[in-house]
Design goal:
Length: about 600
C-alpha cells in the first residue's frame, strides 16, 4: 500500500497483507554528493543545495563512481502489524552504506554496512546487507542512506517481513548450494579423470571451474561470509582476481584442448598475445588502480577470441570442437545479457532470469565443456580402436607374407650354402697360392732391406764427402742439416755408433730421451748427445755450431766478421766458439786435455 506525500514521493504503508515491497521509481529519491562532504545535519537543515531528486529509473544508479549517493525512503509504520520487518540491500558489492534509521523522538541511529567493513559488524549474518526496523509506533518516518561504491551499482532497497525473509533466504541459499555443488562435483569428476589419464586440458578445466565458483561466491557475498570474513581488503578485489583466473585458465584450456601449438601456431601466438595483454591489465589494476577491476566487460575480449578460434576449428571439421563452441556461445550470451543489464542498454529488465543469466551461462558452459572433454576422449578412443583394427589386419597380412618370405629365404639359404662351399674351396686354393707368394715377398723384402742399408751407408758417405769438400756455403749446409733436431740425431748416431756405455756405472743398456739423449736403464743417469763434446753448453743453435765446425775442419778461409754476418750471431760468440774448436783440434799441447775431457769431433778429416 502506498501514499503520496506533499512533495510527490510515495510512502510505503506497512501492512500484513504484503510480505515485501521494493522501493523503485517514485518510492525512492536520491542526491549526488560529488565531494562526499554532505552530512545528515546538512540534509535535515534543508539546505537548497541538498535537494533530493525524484527517481525516474527502476532504481537509482551511481553514474559517477567517485561520488557518494544519498537515497531516502518513507515508511508509514503501524503498530498493529503482527509481523516483524527489516530493510535489505540487494547488491552485495556496495563498498559502504551509512544507514540513518529514524526514531520516533526525532533522532537517528547510524548503522555502518558494506563489503569494506568486517563481516562481524553485521547485525544479521547474511550475504546481503540487512537492517532491522522497529514497528511499534504509528508514524511516517524518513530513512536516509549514504551509499558509495567503486563500480556501477543499482541501489535497490526492499522492505520485508522476517517470515518472508527467512523463506526467501533459505530457498536462495539452497539454490546457490545446488549451483556451487554442481560446480564442485564437475570439478572433482574431471580432477579424477585428470589423475587417471593425465591429460592437461582436464587440469585446466578443473582450475577454470573452481575459479568460476570463487568468482561468483566473491560477487554474491558467500566467500566473504564463509571464507574470508576478516579480510575486507581482499574481499574488495577477490572478484577481479578470480575473473582474471577465469580468463587465464579458459585460454589455457582452449590452447591444449584444440592443440593450437601444433594445429594452428599463428592462432596460438595470437591467443598468447591476448593472454599477455590481459595479464598486463590485471597487474595494472592490482598495483595502480583497483577500481579498474570493476570493468569486467574487458573479459569479453578473450571470450570472443576463444569462441572465434573454436568456431574456426569446428568449420575445419575438428569434431571435439562442437560442444566447446556451444559452451563458449552460452557464456557469450550470458555475458552480453549481464552487460546490458548493468549498463541499462536495451532496457531488458532486471528479472530473475536476466539477473542470474551469467550464473546459468557459466553452469551450462561447464556442463558443455565437461561433455566436450568426454566427447574428445570418445572420439580419440574410436580412432584408437579403428587404428588397432587396422594394425591387427595388417599384422595378419604381414604374418602371411612372413611365412611366404621365410620359405623363399630357406630355399635361397640352401642354394647360397652350396655356392659358399664351392667358393670356400676356391678361397682355400687361393690362400695357399697367396702363402707361397708371401714367402717370396718376404725374401724380396729382406733383399730390399740390405739394399736400403747399403744406400743409406752410401748416402752417409756422400754427406761426409759433401761436408769435406771446400766451398759449401751456409745455404747448402742447412739443406743437409735443416734444424737442430737433425743435428742432435746425427751427433747421437756418431757418438754411440759403437753402442751406449753409461759414464757413471758402465752399463751398456739405455733408453732414448728428449733431444736424442740416453738414459741408463740401471742407474738412471741421463747423458745428452752434446755432453763430452765441443758442442756441450753451446748457447746458440746447434745447426750454426755445426757450420762453424765444418768451416774449421775443411779449412775454409772466412773472417769472423763475415761469419757473424752469415749466421747472424755476435762476433764475440763466433770468435769464442772458433777458439774452442781450435783448442780441441790443436796438436800435442792439448792431447792430454782432449783425452781427459773425452772431447769427440764427429767429422772425418
Amino acid at each position: 500500500m502506498a501514499t503520496t506525500s506533499l512533495y510527490g514521493q510515495h510512502t510505503y504503508d506497512i501492512a500484513d497483507s504484503t510480505d515485501q515491497h521494493i522501493f523503485v521509481y517514485d518510492f525512492i529519491e536520491y542526491l549526488e554528493d560529488p565531494k562526499d562532504s554532505i552530512t545528515l545535519k546538512n540534509i535535515l537543515d534543508g539546505h537548497h543545495d541538498h535537494t533530493f531528486k525524484p527517481n525516474t529509473d527502476f532504481a537509482p544508479k551511481n553514474y559517477n563512481i567517485h561520488s557518494a549517493y544519498w537515497v531516502r525512503i518513507k515508511i508509514n509504520h503501524h503498530s498493529n502489524s503482527q509481523k516483524q520487518w527489516l530493510l535489505e540491500f540487494f547488491d552485495q558489492t556496495i563498498d559502504s552504506i551509512f544507514a540513518f534509521i529514524p526514531k520516533p523522538n526525532n533522532r537517528y541511529d547510524t548503522i555502518l554496512l558494506g563489503d569494506a567493513a568486517p563481516f562481524s559488524m553485521r547485525r544479521i549474518k547474511h550475504k546481503n546487507f540487512i537492517i532491522p526496523i522497529e514497528n511499534d509506533h504509528n508514524k511516517e518516518l524518513t530513512y536516509y542512506f549514504k551509499v558509495k561504491a567503486s563500480h556501477p551499482i543499482d541501489i535497490i532497497l526492499v522492505v520485508r517481513s522476517y517470515d518472508f525473509f527467512s523463506f526467501y533466504s533459505l530457498n536462495e541459499y539452497f539454490l546457490f548450494g545446488i549451483f556451487y555443488g554442481l560446480i564442485i562435483l564437475i570439478g572433482l569428476y574431471n580432477l579424477l579423470l585428470y589423475f587417471t589419464i593425465r591429460e592437461t586440458p582436464y587440469l585446466h578445466f578443473v582450475l577454470y571451474a573452481y575459479s568460476v565458483a570463487l568468482f561468483f561466491s566473491s560477487s554474491d557475498g558467500f566467500s566473504y561470509q564463509y571464507l574470508w570474513s576478516h579480510w575486507p581488503f581482499w574481499n574488495e578485489i577477490a572478484y577481479g582476481v578470480f575473473m582474471f583466473f577465469i580468463s587465464v585458465f579458459g585460454i589455457f584450456f582452449t590452447k591444449h584442448f584444440l592443440h593450437l601449438k601444433y594445429k594452428a601456431p599463428k592462432l596460438n601466438t595470437m591467443l598468447n598475445g591476448v593472454l599477455a595483454l590481459r595479464s598486463v591489465y590485471f597487474f595494472s589494476c592490482l598495483f595502480f588502480d583497483k577500481t579498474w577491476f570493476d570493468h569486467l566487460y574487458i573479459d569479453i575480449v578473450p571470450l570472443v577470441f576463444v569462441l572465434a578460434i573454436s568456431t574456426y576449428f569446428l568449420w575445419r571439421g575438428y569434431k571435439p570442437a562442437r560442444l566447446a563452441t556451444l559452451a563458449f556461445f552460452f557464456l557469450l550470451i550470458g555475458s552480453i545479457t549481464k552487460l546490458l543489464l548493468a549498463t541499462g542498454i536495451g532496457n531488458i529488465g532486471s528479472g530473475v532470469i536476466n539477473y542470474y543469466a551469467l550464473n546459468m551461462a557459466f553452469l551450462l558452459q561447464l556442463i558443455a565443456l565437461s561433455f566436450a572433454l568426454g566427447d574428445k576422449v570418445r572420439i580419440l578412443k574410436n580412432k584408437k580402436d579403428r587404428a588397432m583394427r587396422r594394425i591387427v589386419k595388417q599384422h595378419e597380412i604381414n604374418s602371411r607374407l612372413q611365412t611366404k618370405v621365410n620359405r623363399e629365404l630357406e630355399q635361397r639359404v640352401r642354394e647360397r650354402t652350396l655356392e659358399l662351399n664351392i667358393k670356400n674351396e676356391e678361397l682355400k686354393k687361393t690362400h695357399d697360392q697367396m702363402a707361397e707368394q708371401a714367402a717370396e715377398i718376404n725374401k724380396m723384402n729382406a733383399m730390399l732391406d740390405i739394399d736400403n742399408w747399403k744406400i743409406k751407408k752410401e748416402s752417409k758417405q756422400e754427406i761426409r764427402k759433401k761436408l769435406l769438400s771446400r766451398g759449401v756455403n751456409y745455404a747448402e749446409f742447412i739443406k743437409i742439416f735443416p734444424d737442430d733436431m737433425i743435428c742432435y740425431q746425427y751427433l747421437a748416431d756418431v757418438k754411440w755408433s759403437q753402442g751406449f756405455e753409461c759414464k757413471k756405472c758402465g752399463h751398456t743398456n739405455g733408453n732414448q730421451q728428449k733431444h736424442h739423449s740416453r738414459r741408463c736403464s740401471r742407474c738412471g743417469y741421463i747423458e745428452s748427445a752434446t755432453s763430452h763434446t765441443v758442442f756441450h753448453n753451446v748457447k746458440f743453435p746447434l745447426q750454426k755450431a755445426f757450420y762453424i765446425s765444418h768451416l774449421e775442419l775443411t779449412g775454409t778461409k772466412i773472417t769472423t766478421v763475415e761469419l757473424s754476418r752469415i749466421l747472424k750471431l755476435r762476433v764475440a760468440t763466433c770468435s769464442a766458439f772458433r777458439e774452442k774448436l781450435r783448442k780441441a783440434l790443436s796438436g800435442n799441447d792439448h792431447k792430454e786435455t782432449l783425452k781427459n775431457q773425452d772431447i769427440i769431433v764427429f767429422f772425418d778429416y
